[in-house]
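Long-time lurker, finally posting.

We've been working with Dehydrogenase/reductase SDR family member 11 (Cherax quadricarinatus) and I want a structural starting point before designing mutants. I don't trust myself to interpret raw outputs, so I'm hoping someone here can both generate the structure tokens and explain anything notable. Sequence follows.
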Amino acid sequence: MERWSGRVALVTGASAGIGAAICRRLVEAGMIVVGAARNEERIKALASELANKPGTLTPVKCDVSKDSDILNLFSTIKQKFGGVDVCINNAGMSHNKSLLEGTPQEWREMLDINVVGLCLCTREAVASMQERKVDDGQIIQVSSMSGHRIVPHEATHFYTATKFAVTALTEGLRQELRSAKSHIRVAAISPGIVETEFAGRMNKNEAEGKKFYKNLECLQADDIASSVIHILAAPPHVQIHDILIRPTEQTS
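Top reply, 14 upvotes:
Generated this for you. Predicted structure of Dehydrogenase/reductase SDR family member 11:
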């Protein structure tokens, strides 16, 4: 990780769960981290907690479902730090609705955050790297096991479709970067069940979310952050494409 010390990483969905854990590990590794989320105050609290670590954490308020917020985010990063060397697209969400019960508004919200926002952040990050002739940058998409199989859980079927899109986008971006003779790498991490605030938000019920995670020994947010470090620490000639990681007790 030594080559990343002092370099700039963007983490979306940074206010809690996996995003916060990634921010922590990158700051500990000496990186200049920009944490983006709608809840800026929680990132500020994390930044204060990490104040004595080798790197830094700068909070930026950003709703990745809004194009203007993303463009303003990258403008802010350019003004303060010059640009990004690592972009970790972690923001994601799901509604607790089957395909037969869901609404167009809910589907569009999932698409805007899980797919369109991810694509726009990726486009802007690669443009930032290319503009500064950074040829060893890294894009990491935090996806899901749901991008690789369809489980008989009706409430997640549209969410699953968005993560299948991320699987396709990851390979598509890899091909485009190779065609451009770029050494910028792209990787995905596809976790199974991770104990975060995700289930509570999906069910719009914190107690139900906590109950869900008691069914097995879940992955923890730091387990996913460890996979981020694994990807970044790989030699530049090594392309780690997609890490599938699930709890040992998870059946699907």
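Before you design anything, note these points.
The two ends are 33 Å apart (CA to CA).
The chain has one domain: 2-245.
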